[in-house]
Amino acid sequence: MPHPEAQGESVPPRGGKLSRNVRLLGLASLLNDVASEMIYPLMPQFLIGVLKGNKFQLGLIEGVADSASSLLKPWMGAWSDRAGRRKSFVVLGYLASAVSRPLIGLAAAPWHLLAARSADRIGKGIRTAPRDALVAESSEDAMRGRAFGFQRAMDHLGAAFGPLLGALFLWIAPNELRTLFLLSIVPGLAVAVLLVLGLRERAAVSGGSAAPPVATGCGETVAHPAVPPIDGNFRLYLFSLVVFTLGNSSDAFLLLRAGELGVPTAVLPLLWCLFHVVKSSGNLVGGRLVDRWGPRPMILAGWLLYAAVYLGFALAHEAWQVWVCFLAYGIHFALTEPAERTFVTHLVGPRGKGRAFGWFNLAIGIATFPASVAFGWLYDRFGALAAFGWGAGLALAAAALLAGVNSARGRIPDRGVSNKRQGDSS
Fold first, then answer.
1. Which of 174, 214, 326, 408 lies 20 to 30 angstroms, CA to CA, from 42?
2. pLDDT, tens digit, for every residue of 286-332?
3. Same domain for 163 and 239?
4. Is residue 137 in some structural domain?
5. 417-to-214, 221, 357 alpha-carbon distances in Å
6. Residue 415: which H helix or E strand, with range?
7. Do 135 and 34 lie in a common domain?
8. What's the predicted TM-score (pTM) here?
9. pLDDT digits (tens, 9 = 90+) for 94-115
């Protein structure tokens, strides 16, 4: 039987279609990640080999860029709630990244790369929370996990194709890094055009106390209440995410571990591509399971699997074991990514999704930088078992915290407005 957390929601008809907005946002994620990942793996080499930078500058660039993105997300989410619209934030965010990303090809000094990379991540900060809120609002309750699974699957599919396209270009035109960076504007601008022409704005979602009335489906209208405050229950969920993320270091350490265990450098891109393929296909399945069993069991299963995978990386002693660990790590993402976002909508109800997704992304973002610093120090000082054991232990602690979250609190059905009325037909 379905998990109790999934009960009370209407079950979509078999073969039900995702809404137009969800499909468009998924395609936008795919194209944007193609543009991003076709150049991202090459930026360290570009900084050090062409711009004559160093590893400290690389860390500074990525740290500043990611911090700018993380700090913007709650503000942009809340602003989109107050504005009563999401589309303009989503389009502006993707457009900012599309324009700034190819400017890396014109960089003549490390600080130029810092400026372009920061502008790219600022675009991510502008769009992420409003986009996630729009995905939620464009989906029926019983298909929300599937919607987030589709969006994440397209994102990872783009991350798999991007490096392959970059490698193909450099095989045809060796050492033409600047040209490749400039060409990233093509899929980036395609995203902006696609969303301007195809994305349909939802009805007003203002967070004010006088939000417009909406149809109940029974011949009457009711006014939405004001956006409720972030309660202790949701804060506990955010805290569990912070604890988990503190043990979830950069995946670059996993690639480093693969090299230590004998995976050839020339094969690492293939391993990375396969990893993203597993994440992409797995998210499609994981999203459907979230709708059937509820988000919290999926998150718990994913975090427990993460702990096992990290211990596997620590204890592995042959190259083939790394491949198994990477595939299992991809399944972890399939279990958790659609579920974590769906759980946000379960906890906050129909109002204030933009703000809620902003805090959700901030909770993850603020823990990412110290997570990698701590992991790197443990790895360098005490070895793989200490570092990966640290990550596994924090995953178990986060799971214990998540078990205390009341999944029913603040959950208000928001199926009253039909997709047709909201301007987003399937």
1. 326
2. 888 888 888 999 999 999 999 999 999 999 999 999 999 999 999 99
3. no
4. yes
5. 7, 10, 21
6. none
7. yes
8. 0.68
9. 999 999 999 999 999 989 998 9
